[in-house]
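Lab notebook, page 48
Experiment: co-folding of the full assembly
Goal: obtain a model of how the components sit together before planning crosslinking
Operator: M.T.
Materials (sequences as entered):
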Amino acid sequence: MQRSTIDDVAQAAAVSIKTVSRVLNHEPNVRESTRQRVMAAVESLNYHPSQSARSLAGSRSYVIGLLYNNPSANYMFDLQTGAMERCRQDRFQLIIHDCTRRRQDIAKHALGLIDQTHADGLVLSAPVCDEPLLLDALHQRSVPYVCIAPNQSPHHASYSFMDDRAAAREITDHLLGLGHRRIAVIVGHPDHYSAVQRLLGFKDSMKAAGVEPNMQLQKQGFYDFESGYTATRELLALATPPSAILACNDDMAAGALMAAHEANINVPNDLSVAGFDDTYISKVVWPRLTTVHQPIQEMAKVATDQLIRQLKSGAQSEPKRIDHCLVVRDSTGPAPT
Amino acid sequence: MQRSTIDDVAQAAAVSIKTVSRVLNHEPNVRESTRQRVMAAVESLNYHPSQSARSLAGSRSYVIGLLYNNPSANYMFDLQTGAMERCRQDRFQLIIHDCTRRRQDIAKHALGLIDQTHADGLVLSAPVCDEPLLLDALHQRSVPYVCIAPNQSPHHASYSFMDDRAAAREITDHLLGLGHRRIAVIVGHPDHYSAVQRLLGFKDSMKAAGVEPNMQLQKQGFYDFESGYTATRELLALATPPSAILACNDDMAAGALMAAHEANINVPNDLSVAGFDDTYISKVVWPRLTTVHQPIQEMAKVATDQLIRQLKSGAQSEPKRIDHCLVVRDSTGPAPT
DNA sequence: CGCGAGTATGACAGCGCTGTCAACCGGTGT
DNA sequence: ACACCGGTTGACAGCGCTGTCATACTCGCG
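Observation: model returned without errors.
Model output:
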């Protein structure tokens, strides 16, 4: 019941360790009968190659690092789940690294992580994937990496993304279609690219509908519950409050709902509230949030896939857009007349 | 800017690699002046020891595995955050492993993980920490492990826990104190120890208050939103519905709120709803949930601490209870007369 | 002043693999 | 019969560390 090594397997299959290595790494030029003998030995000994030995000896470690600095649990969880799913397929190990605190020397820390773990590559999630110093450092050390929803296309990396601007247009159009004209927008965290894009999409639609921009109805938020709550209180205190609020993520939308409930305002009869992301929260608040589904898990999976492919082939792949979709639930309704 | 090795450091500090190793591992018998020279070299070369080489050569890998099979994002996130925090302190690497799917051969998988990663030990979270086959297998291979909130005290491991039963008594007493007598309870997932304990605590208090048990008011849930929602719909359809509902976690409580809202029942005026765990969700639903704070992050941190200590000293530590506390918010109020 | 008992340091093997290179095997073309 | 070639296999070095053991150095004390 002890740990078995490649020597044990080699002995059991009556081949050299090198042949075992070949079989395990799917190298060519192994006779089928030999391959089967080796696999049988692997099975029966319940052998698992040592990652440490592999990464020390070879050029691959089968470890991928996932860097994040987004404090939302749901976001993180989806990210992680998507990346893990893809990793498991090719028996990669995923190492999670939180870089929320270190803004300055993030590049140094990332390189340290690479040195320590011998990670083959990194998956960078938003917004850490937009740190130019980090990207430069990785490129200089030729560490392969991919980005999830980056700001501008990184020069040296593949990435997955969704069209935030189009998505914002869709949900704004949904509100406009319900007859709303006084629509407020609670903007996301200024550090996040998505916040900018979503605001642009909102403005696109409003302009197309011929609605005059009104800065009173645009509030700065930070993608958290609290800021959505505060912004909505201010909006509701206006002489003529909005008939609809587009919050640029679900947490802020939940905050908006809270403020509305407290002010005894009926959603959606007196006020429509729309969110963004379709996280777990959007399904458990009351009323259930109309929102846009952001396919985080899928984006993470695709990005990880791009990375793994790159590790195998050496070539970057094309950026890949993942589809969003509008999810209409109960928090939006016709504009009051 | 290339990766530097222990040889580089040794050369820079004009010592042997063994001495560098000594300094980095805080071994005794190194002259202070030598130590400083080495540290300076480490700094200036930005040296990070290779985990692979370390674990191959030595008996420690500085890797800890965290096993979970609880699909709640918030639970996971807290777990992970707590464990990571402690790991960082001693430069341990945390490896997350989801074992949701594999119920049967979980033991085999865990040992495979150990073989692959050379992990020094495992942190097992509830409910996976209650798989006897897993615990046995780990013990047989003498893999150090600790548990978070295990069912029965594992023989060969330290663990951290909270007193679910007492916590349930507290929140039940809170409801009783508000004058409620017809209190329904939505029980948690039968696989989770906590579910049993919380139900016992509830019954303790009800009995102490002299309330006759009423099986109509006890519903089986599964710690998810949906089951809380369904159970509550059934409860509200009763000839004489309860005046208060204790849901054994926040997700189910959120489901209860949803059902109440849909039935146009005012919370807390007509119905009180209490949750359990004090997760993020309890602060964003309306009305904000009265609940019990379950210190998951702290439990994870403490358990990880126990593991790391054990790795250093070889000795188990005492089980450690982490304090919960009642959090009264807006979802509970006086019983209607 | 020399000797024993630490104290400080280094030489070296080897952890479990992969990469390199050489060897071998059987069929082909001439 | 022989050189040749591609497919198949194995011997062996070495990745960057730690553990073991040997060695050199230091200090107190007889």
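Interpretation: Chain A has three domains: 6-49, 63-162+296-322, 164-294.
Next step: discuss with group before ordering constructs.
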